[in-house]
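User
New here, help please:
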Amino acid sequence: MSTKQPTQPSRWRKTFIQRRVSANVDYLRPHRLNWAAIVRPLDESLSQQAGDVPWQTVRSLRFFWLDGLFAAISENFYLGFVTLYALAYGATNGQVGTITAVANLMGALALFPGAQLVEWVGQRKPVVVWSGGGVARLLLLLLAMMPFVITQPLWAITAIIVLNGLRAFMGNLANPGWTSMVADLVPNAIRGRYFGSRNTAMGIAALIVAPLAGRIISTGNGWADFDQFGYQAIFFLAFLFGMVSTFSFQRIEEPHATEAQQAEHRRGDLRRAIRQSPGYVGLVVSAFVWNLALQVAAPFFNVYLVNAFQSTATTIGLLASVSSLTALLGQRVFGRLMDVRGAFWVALATGFLIPGLPLAWVFITADWQVGIINTFGGFLWAGYNLANFNLLLTLTPDEQRPRAVALYQTAVFTSAVIGPLLGGFLADSVSYQLIFGLSAAGRLLGIALFALFTVRLVGKMNESGAERP
């Protein structure tokens, strides 16, 4: 790493600093600063204004913010359209369920190897950059090129299953290291505001990109006699913006690992660490039930719109943008609430309302009605995801965080393997309404289990005066 000292700020820069200091602006919000202020190292005076956070950390937080923005652009170009890509080749509900199940299975299989890879390499950032940021995004390019090579529908569907599964494997190989690194990178005192700001930027990206992707698909398919050219275009754009995200993450300075994190892993260390981390087991158990219920229905919402109401990709993209729009409000509201009331409160408040969303799908009679559901869904999911991620960072033991995250995510992905297969079978043999109703009931059970486990934990923390997550 270069030891070159930063140059003295220019006259306009000094004026800029003085005005910002007098205004008492939070310098961890890069969306309020121009590009030069984001990418240039900050001097010591600005570091003090950021709550005594070193300028290297502030700079890394800004590149992490940019990483999230471009990752969201990439994901919203393709993530909601993988199943539609397969449907364009004539995939059945069973095959759609297989696409999701295989991706989740491969994701589950990658987690513990990912944790072990971090321990073997001794650093987290290289693992994240080369697996999730590198190979996983190159596979998006292969999905874009696939129709040039494979034209037979059955082989094309098989290729989508395989490539999407490999993408999930490489993406989740990075997950333990990424989560561990983020827990050390973002100071606990500002997590609510910081992730609220970062997620807001990601929500704005989703608001713009999802309908744009749908429009590109609708207008691009059939261009120059390439039936799937629209899908090829969105996967190619996802690859390009994904690589910008990777380059942004590469600029982050990895936080120094603690001595406990650097200690050699021994058999039984994870089990002992979990015993000393109240609430973690409850988080894992409830997450298994919650995500099983979620994945019974999740892959089939857009499929239902296409099969039942002949909705176009443009319509689906616009409906997704409704969620993104209300999620922006949710990020602001719940980001502040989490800093005041705590992540447990936000998770419970949103978790008991979310089961009503799939239940509402049982009664829709036209695709525009999904816009009403998504209006509430985007707002509630913004709060739930923000709280759940903070709980994961808080409840996982520090000295065994990569392996503890891997265990948590393994439970999540295991349930996500079973859910789509079960949902695909029930959708084909019974009805979509059944899987939507089952999803609502299962989510309610999952949040109830979470409440039972965490009420005891919150009581103990209040008695001991410990900091509330």
Observations:
- The chain is about 75% helix and 0% strand.
- The CA atoms of residues 347 and 384 lie 5 Å apart.
